[in-house]
Amino acid sequence: MGAAASGITELAEMMVYFGKRIDFYAKYYSIEKYPSKPTLSRILNMLDGDAVGKIIAEIMRENAVDIGGIIAVDGKAIRSTGKKGEAHSFLQILTAYATESGVTLSQEAIAHEDKTNEIPVFQSMLDCLDIKGKTITANAMHCQKNTCDKIVKGGDYVFGLNGNQGRLLSDVELFFKDSVNGDEIKAFERIEKNGGRFEKRICRASDNIDWLPDLPQWAGLRTIIAVTRATTAQGVT
């Protein structure tokens, strides 16, 4: 479990990991010995990795009293797992986690041959999550009509929007640029300081979207949002 969480996938590397961490396991788990390489190989061959992962996620969900109302879905490449000379050999993981409680609800590996494989993995993940009353957040890759259909059967969504939905993006950008729509837009501003770095964020939102030509195709769409960020560091903005 510890080796897998560290991104180690090769049996020989697991043995080295256990050897270096045996004091940790002895202290916290009373495990003073670890199995031999052949024994570990037999054990791993008997296990269904996906099933084990789902059981662990289910245990975490059951022990979380209140996970909060927001579930963030994010894909990460674990660079340390890459093989030398193979640019796209690193392990990629799609994770759904409750942002308010920090509980990981689900994790799935993504086939690294094509980044867009993340889309069907996310849609499949939604079938296993309890999203009733929750808001799902994800980047623009997941701004997909089929994904929205799945989510609004029990929850809500906030997705990024970019060129992969070109017509919708153009319509939304034009709306926020048109000063005529100023009365229909709510604006919020926040300034944060981190050391000598200032970041100003302006969030504009409108629920006046009946004019969107593609609105009927986007299940549950109620609000469009535009965020402008300006960062100032060492006098340069």
Structure in words:
The chain is an alpha/beta fold and 237 residues long. It has helices at residues 2-5, 11-29, 37-46, 49-63, 118-126, 145-151, 166-177, and strands at residues 70-78, 91-98, 104-110, 135-138, 156-159, 186-194, 197-206, 224-233. Helices cover 32% and strands 26% of the residues. Strands 3-2-1-4-5 form a 5-stranded mixed beta sheet. Strands 6-7-8 form a 3-stranded antiparallel beta sheet. Helix 5 (118-126) runs parallel beside helix 6. The chain starts with a helix and ends with a strand.
Structure summary, number of beta strands = 8
Oligomer: single chain
> Major sheet, described briefly?
5 strands, mixed
Rounded to an integer in angstroms, the radius of gyration calculated over CA atoms is 23 Å
- Please list the strands of the largest sheet in the order they lie side by side: 3-2-1-4-5
Order of helices and strands: HHHHEEEHEHEHEEE
Strand content: 25-35%
The count of helical stretches stands at 7
Averaged pLDDT, please?
A: 84
The N- to C-terminal Cα distance equals 45 Å
What's the shape?
elongated
**Unreliable parts:** none
Structural class of the secondary structure composition? alpha/beta
> How much helix is in the residues?
25-40%
